[in-house]
Amino acid sequence: MSATLGIDAGGSQTRWALLGSDQSILSEGSIAGFSALELGCESGDRKVSDILESLSDQVLGRGGVSGVHAGVSGFGGLQERSGQTLHALMAQHFKLPGEAVVLSNDSELACLAAFEPGMGYLVYAGTGSIAGFVDAQREFHRAGGRGGILDDGGSGYWITVQALRKIWRAEDEKPGCWIASPMAVSLFKAIGGSDWSCSRQLIYGASRGRIGQLALAVAAAADCDPVARDILQRAGVELARLGSAMIARFGIRPVVLAGRVPQLHRLIEQSMRQCLPPECDLRLVNLQAHIAAARLALKRG
Asked: Which pTM was predicted?
């Protein structure tokens, strides 16, 4: 049975959905995450190709695919070499002509999953963080989303780095004090050790997605550790900054907060809400961007 495939690829996971011609969900699942920014070197090209091969094995085993729409983290357009490589890999692995494969940034896809064009702003916080707005002319506008080195305030990556910075600065002043910190105990357990070598290997050797996932350990300590609570509250402030930037540029509209980070702890949404204009309608939504992508592919025919 021919179907359309929707893909939502981020740093920590790639979600996918197959839709039939009647818009029924035939199948859905998830595999390892990837970013278009990984393309451009032999190891990165191989990693992304292997993930797409695994995905195509799952998908094509269920029947033919007539079209694909994929929202991919780090995708900057087909004018970039990485975009061209990704487009070619998608067509190759799903056995489709190039015109049957449409790529967009994952943030733009999420905006279209949250609102009709021109209707509202999306603030998305996962491994990274970004605000997006698709206007009535279907032009995509953004704030943030520039990666962990420059910003990504309020993201899972940001939360983990903030926590480790606090822990290791405290260790500089009083070695061994981590044992009295619920946040440090939780985080070191998740990392696999309290030695600096364990943290160093994580920060300088692990993927951004892996680092971002450790925000779970910070959130787990928030109800009994004031330092963890402060980090999560500041994450909400950072996400509110993104929403406020959109409001300053385009006026008051509803704001949807989505991604895995807002689900970590209620403090994040509460803090963000307090920092936005009181007349701003903020909603926490569990977006199904992979399903929205499949519907876009179906609509395109």
From this structure: 0.85
Q: What integer pLDDT is reported at residue 198 of this predicted model?
A: 97
215: in domain: no
- Confirm whether 172 is domain-assigned: no
Is residue 129 in a domain? no
**pLDDT tens digit sequence for 13-24:** 899 999 998 889
Distance, CA of 3 to CA of 20 (rounded, Å): 5
Angle 167-129-207 from CA coordinates, rounded to 5°: 60
Number of domains making up the chain:
1
Domain with residue 40: its CATH number is 3.30.420.40
Q: Is residue 230 part of a domain?
A: no
Burial class (CB in 10 A: 0-12, 13-18, 19+), 107: buried
- CA-CA distance, 123 to 72, in Å (whole number)? 16
H or E element at residue 204: helix 196-205
pLDDT at 301 over 80: no
SS3 143: strand
Residue 267's closest CA among 243, 235, 239, 240? 235
- Identify whether the C-beta of residue 257 lies closer than 8 Å to the C-beta of residue 284: yes
Domain coverage including residue 33: 3-111+289-300
Q: Which residues are CB-contacts of 49 (< 8 A; sequence separation ≥ 6)?
A: 89, 93
Question: Residue 300 has what pLDDT?
Answer: 82
pLDDT of 208 higher than 90? no
Q: Supply the DSSP string of 11-29, one letter for each residue.
A: SSEEEEEEE-TTS-EEEEE
Q: What is the pLDDT of residue 80?
A: 92
Confidence at residue 61, expressed as pLDDT on a 0 to 100 scale: 82
